[in-house]
Amino acid sequence: MGFVKAAKSGVVWTFAQQFSVQAINFGVQIVLARLLMPSDFGLIAMITIFVAIGQSLSDSGMSTSLIRNSENSERDYGTVFITNLAISFIVYIIVYLVAPLAARFYDQPVLTELLRLYAVVFLITAFSAVQLAKFSKELKFKIQFTYQLPSTIIGTVTGILLAYQGYGVWSLVWLNIAQNFSFALILWLFHSWKPKFIFDKSLFSGHFNFGYKLTLSSLINTVYLNLYKIIIGKQFSATSVGFFTQADSLRQFPINQLSIVLNKVTFPLFASISNDTKKLRKAYVSAMRLVLSLSAAMMLMLIVIAKPLFLTVFGEKWLPSVPYFQILCVASIFLPIGTYNLNILKVKGRSDLFLKVEIIKKIIGVTSLVIAIPFGIKAMVWSLCITNIFFAYLNGFFSGKFIEYGVLNQLKSSFHVVLLAIIPAMVCYYLQLENFYTWYHSSWLEIILLCTTYVILYLPLIWFFNPELFKDLKTILKR
């Protein structure tokens, strides 16, 4: 199969994988939100930082190194596999020992056993990380879809059944364990290729030297993003963390699906043309223009329909999440810009610069957070929003040099795109303030009418003022 054909197939199957798997996950999130209390989600959010750090350390960025390599041998895959297994075991022991300290920090004794059980996921995912890297490098996303869908269903059924039986927060833990275990088991039982138990010291050095910088960057980013949950959990309550977490999860759902689908395909594609600046810039600009147009439209639409959406989907008990959700949606508009800019640094092999950029961003972000803490949770959320927008273009400042597309050009292009998306949002917001839709006394109908109004207004604006978008979309679909 030619590379272009493989890329086309990759887009189709990656979209199928993301849409089906995440649709199921989103559905179960709705069910569990109605069965469980906000405090249950808050308890899970409190240990998220330990789980995220453990997962980053377990992989050590070596899976990304496999994808970036032009060619990998069985010795490459075997070396990374053995390394992941060893590090995962060490990380699990460390997390097991520090779990009581986490429980004492939050004054939540249940977190000790909760964290110890959840951390089993580190050991499980070590058995599937290399296979996933190989499939991604070869653009074999159909295989991922075939194996991930049933494992997602198994985890979903497990979580919902336990929630119905009154297991509370434990149902969330077992959902993740069942999902990851079944996926790894299916991979090892039904797929012919398996990593061999081969370790090559020289290959390890090459993968580790590239990967550890990405790991450090990931750890810095993980700690920074979870600082908000840590501080809210420490200063306020598990329920407050639950409201913030639900808002953050919902705003990330649509934008992550869009970003992940394209990133899983465009990262290896960008890597294949990394030595041709002109081609790389053209591919980057086309992808960014398309994704930003979609992300701006989705996020602004969600801001408008936020209250009826939470009321309908999660229930009245989750309405305190709405203000946090609307603020975070503003930040999500610009998420693709930051992500694609960092991908340029990756394909150029500049993991050292990647790390430096992350350190600079986090120093700025932590300073902003510290200033916002005395003013309450909403001020902290605004701090997260503003700094994330700034970070997107800070990434662009560094990556733009490699593709000769500076941050001023990025600002100009994105302003044009976002402005077109804001206009119909303002119209819908005005109609909402005038109670134009509420006379139906149906939140679902209000959501449908607002979204329909937005789309009717947005498409003609795109057609007249940004016709290149349709050309880019047509080109991407054809390729």
Automatic annotation (TrEMBL):
Membrane association type: Multi-pass membrane protein
Subcellular location: Cell membrane
Keywords: Cell membrane, Membrane, Transmembrane, Transmembrane helix
Pfam families in alphabetical order: Polysacc_synt_3
CDD domains cross-referenced by the UniProt entry: MATE_tuaB_like
Residues that span the membrane, as ranges: 41-58, 79-103, 115-133, 145-164, 170-190, 287-310, 322-342, 363-393, 413-431, 443-465
Similarity comment: family membership: Belongs to the polysaccharide synthase family.
PANTHER family associated with the record: LIPOPOLYSACCHARIDE BIOSYNTHESIS PROTEIN WZXC, PST FAMILY PREDICTED COLANIC ACID TRANSPORTER
Name this protein carries in UniProt: Lipopolysaccharide biosynthesis protein
Record lineage: Bacteria, Pseudomonadati, Bacteroidota, Sphingobacteriia, Sphingobacteriales
